[in-house]
Amino acid sequence: MSTDDESFHPLGEEWEDELETMLDDTEYDSDLGMEMAQDAMRVTKGELSEAEFHEKHHEDVMEEFGEDERPTKAAYEAAQEEAKGTASKMLDAFDGDGDETRRETMKKMGVGAAAVGLGAWGTVDDGPEENLAAEEGGHSEPRQETTEERDTQWGMTIDLERCDGCLTCMTACTQENDLDQGVNWMYVMAWEDELHGGPGEDDNTDVYSDFNMGSEFNMLVRPCQHCTDAPCEKVCPTTARHTRDKDGLVLTDYDVCIGCRYCQVACPYGVNYFQWDEPSVAYEDIDGNENPENPDQITHAKYEHGERWVDSRAPRGTMSKCTMCPSMQDGKQGEDKVGTSACETACPPGAIQFGNVEDEKSDPSQHREHPVKSRAIIHLTNSVDSTKTAPSADQIDSALSDGDDLETAIENIDGLTEDILAIMKAIEIVSEGTEPGDEENNTILENEQNIIAAVEAFEQYVDLESEEARDDLQLGEGSERDAQFRLEQYTGNPSSFQLLEDVGTNPNVTYLGQEPGPEAHQVEGPTKYEDVDLLDKRQEALDNETVGGIDGVSL
How far is CA 250 from the centre of its chain? Predict the structure, then answer.
């Protein structure tokens, strides 16, 4: 990440200048947008209170927009004290001027934190230098809010060293949300910096014996971070940008968004898009989408509980970004898709683990807390190479006989090697015995149990606790420490990090692998965008180029 003493924006002075130029092309106050963005980041860093932030900008927001739906600190405190999160109670505590606006008639309150993501290259803007406001409308049902700590927070753990740069996640996101070319809610980038070169310059992909480390490039996968406390929501005058209490998803109500683009400036990661032109896919042509012109025509709802329009691609004149597939989380695509996302499902090497990051048994939590073991489990159960997949207990039972020695037993099971068996046994040794819960996306623990069952089946025929077997499998004394070392030989021991941790946004995406340095810059990756019918930048599909995709902008 680039930091500059003269810039408040984590992406640097050049990025900040481009954003200010972008605001100058709108009908809204550029200075106010820049100042609010800077102060919103001060709030996340703890340098400014919510109450001070609201009071400082309230009059200017009212003058510029004729309304200020941002909740005051008093509203937060009142809701927490009374333990009631309804919009009506929030409105009672809200410090408004009493002037009725179309937003007030909709009673769209937004209390919580905003969403951010990363992508300094080709991620910000959409088109011609003009501003289009969204049409008035929307549903009258208020959004319910609460300050209570939630049990569900959707998020991800992404293994950057397992990403092979195939761009399948981007393609899946584009198809799921009917996005225009170049509007990339998911972004996959290869990068280099002063410490980490490209293929042939680093040997980090050759360290591990049989583990598919993905691409030889340094990779970064950038969805929206769906932060617990981020600036982009704080600057939204209409609370179109809001956080769902039930699951922490940070979404944009397209019916309420006025396209002021303040959220675009306030996002530390640069993931917001403005929809300048009409989307390339008409609503009536979207398979399985609600028709906003005829709410009774519902083939497959893309709306949040039929109340707020927050899913699929944005209409003209509004902001959009990665949503983490709320229609899936709401069960509108079937219960089997709750706790999944389009990008995770499509990822061939299983680099993306999506789920409830508040649940210690979920895939993203297991991957974050036990990366070495979970890497091995994912590889042995999700390998693109079937010869590197762990056999099942049934396969072992059908292939082995009493009296088989280790070498014979391994030869009798198709695809099994000493390496794979050693990793299976190491997984059993380091396993804490945690059983999968009833929540969604506990596949890592489920597959761990399957591997342990397979090891137990194997040991009915061959003693893997013997000194000879441990030597053959390179498991030392068979201790937990030896098993952990054997796993690290196989998968490496990746570091984990979150982007811009010092900004204080509390993102809900964790990364495994190499973190880009201050001078990181994008380079051409293993797969070209045009090869999979994608565009690196939206500008390539429009007549007039706008901000974004600036070569040399730091990560």
Answer: 11
Give DSSP secondary structure letters for 286-328.
STT---TT-TT--SS--SBTTTB--SSSPPTT-EE-----HHH
In whole angstroms, how far apart are CA 420 and each of 163, 409, 432? Answer: 21, 13, 20
Write the DSSP symbol of residue 48: S
The number of angstroms, rounded, from the C-alpha of 292 to the middle of its chain's C-alpha atoms is 27
Within 10 Å of residue 466's Cβ, how many Cβ atoms? 12
Instruction: Give the DSSP letter of residue 367.
Output: H
Q: What is the pLDDT along the chain (555 residues), one digit of tens a residue?
A: 444 457 888 888 888 998 999 899 889 999 999 999 999 999 999 999 989 999 999 999 999 999 998 876 566 566 556 544 443 443 344 444 444 443 333 333 232 222 222 333 233 344 443 334 333 333 333 333 334 467 899 999 999 999 999 999 999 999 999 998 889 999 899 999 888 887 866 544 444 445 556 788 999 999 999 999 878 999 999 999 999 989 999 999 999 999 999 999 999 988 898 988 888 877 767 655 444 554 443 333 455 545 788 888 898 999 999 999 998 998 888 889 999 999 999 999 999 999 999 999 999 999 999 999 999 999 999 755 556 789 999 999 999 999 899 999 999 999 899 999 999 999 999 999 999 977 777 899 999 999 999 999 999 999 999 999 999 999 999 999 999 999 999 999 999 999 988 899 999 999 999 999 888 888 999 999 999 999 887 766 665 433 333 333 444
Domain boundaries in the chain?
13-137+152-342+508-541, 370-491
Residues whose CB falls within 8 Å of the CB of residue 170, separated by 6 or more in sequence, listed in order: 184, 186, 187, 188, 343, 532, 534
DSSP-based three-state secondary structure for 429: helix
Cα separation of 473 and 478, whole Å? 10
